[in-house]
Amino acid sequence: MMAARLSFSNITALAPMVRVGTLPMRLLALDYGADVVYCEELIDIKMAQCQRVVNEVLETVDFVAPDDRVMFRTCERERDRVVFQMGTADPERALTVAQLVEKDVAAIDVNMGCPKEYSTKGGMGAALLSDPDKIEAILKKLVTGVGIPVTCKIRILPSVEDTVSLVRRIEKTGVAAIAVHGRFKEERPRHPVHCDYIQAVSQAVSIPVIANGGSLDLVKKNGDIEEFRKATGASSVMLARAAMWNASVFNSQGPVPVERVMEEYLKYAIRYDNNAFNTKYCLCQMLRDKVESPLGKQVQAAQTNAEISNAYGLQEFYQQIQEQQQVRRDALQNGSQPDKPVMDGDVITMAVKFERREYPPQITPKMFLLEWSRKEKLEQPFYETVQRAQDRAFQSTVMVAEKKYRSSLWEKSKKFAEQAAAIVCLRVLGIPEGRIGEEDSGLVCKRKRERKVNGSAEEEIINLRYLFITIVSGHYNPSCFPYRIEGILFRPKKQKQR
Ligand SMILES: Cc1cc2nc3c(=O)[nH]c(=O)nc-3n(C[C@H](O)[C@H](O)[C@H](O)COP(=O)(O)O)c2cc1C
């Protein structure tokens, strides 16, 4: 089933934060009540080199760099809520990255507010604010090139008029929402936020405006979120530091002591094998002025998630998770279930490749799937194929009886990708796929025996075709066809006798 398009109206969001907005923090924010969670800014050049990998041990989807670093890790739980924020100054590259991640995230955001040199020197972040043509080109490219909402996050310009005129131009590109950090690009986080600018923007456009910048002085607890929304006239609110310090700011039931929040965070970090230095960094932000306490010192000295777990008395939890993951790893490695299907969102996947030499000439899994679908009176299998930019490889998803099937391996051609998808479907359903030397499936035989003796003429033709394919491919098994052969071969004679 297609997920509903993410709405940015009347929501509370976890803001994008480098090093903070990784999977454990995003899940924690969702637990406490955030509606939408932004990932940390990821730079387009780095992301474009990544491979999408389904991590069956962690049950995540990882985008892995050539040096094996996981640049972006996500999971099913956040798929309809996570916004992928990128740093970019290039429309083509932005689109490549957006298309790489679009099936695994709910929306794409472009960072147009980061004043840090690593961003601006490449023309990214706040540097884009002085190049509205570039902004327009990037956003238009994304809006027309992906099927999920596109948003952007800006800082305010020196005058209200300039800010309003920029956001009006941005709105025309078709973006779903715009986040406004109410500070000038030269201002530091300690400066007061300019609610009046955000208000002017909110009045000027009809798309949702997400107010940001209130953490320091305006939003200290959950109830303040609504006050900030009112003060800015915005549709929604986005929180960075308030959430980084204590993610329970999203909790409408009231704050949770930071000690418990840290523990919950650490459990996610262990469960999702978060980078230990990233885990440490986030915990130190939560410790704030307690970073020099005995606990803080232990955290700072730790080098691994195991050592951090010890500091919080979570060694048993850590051990349990390690054991669970080892069991999964062993099961995957010893090949005890090589064909085990794995859910990737709403798609059933298996790691299979289509090897032409394994099938007789003229016979393909797609043919088998089509014939089977006709026999079962199902709609014709529907194939949808994507091509990834970095190596131009193809991956196809086939829809059969409202279920989707896909091979997790990429193929060199669209035709092969479709065949691989068909194999996954046939294997999951236990139907022969036409391979040389393949034994007939008991399931198919059983289905055939269950059929009534009298079928329609159309059914006879379909059965005859299926019979022909199984004979040609060497899959013919008389026990599968006792009634049908009789029906096909002898019916005309019987009719004559009448
Ligand atoms: C640690 C940290 C990292 C940040 N990284 C990003 C980022 O990756 N992308 C972005 O657009 N803004 C980033 N920001 C800015 C925040 O998203 C936000 O605009 C700013 O902190 C103001 O919001 P606040 O008052 O709620 O903190 C970062 C802020 C912090 C504190």
In words, what does this structure look like?
GO terms for molecular function: flavin adenine dinucleotide binding; tRNA binding; tRNA dihydrouridine synthase activity. With 498 residues, the protein is of the alpha/beta class. It folds into four domains: 12-253, Alpha-Beta Barrel (TIM Barrel), CATH 3.20.20; 257-336, no CATH class; 338-450, Double Stranded RNA Binding Domain, CATH 3.30.160.20; 455-498, no CATH class. The protein contains 19 helices and 17 strands. α3 (91-101) runs parallel beside α5 (132-145), α13 packs antiparallel against α14 and α18 crosses α19 (482-497). The chain is globular, with a radius of gyration of 28 Å. The two termini are 51 Å apart. The structure holds flavin mononucleotide. Flavin mononucleotide binds at residues 15-18, 20, 40-41, 85, 111, 113-114, 153, 181, 189, 212-216, 239-242. The site of flavin mononucleotide has 23 residues, from α9.
Discrete helix count: 19
Rg from C-alpha positions? 28 Å
Largest sheet: spatial strand order: 1-2-7-8-9-10-11-12
Question: What class would the helix/strand composition place it in?
Answer: alpha/beta
Gross geometry? globular
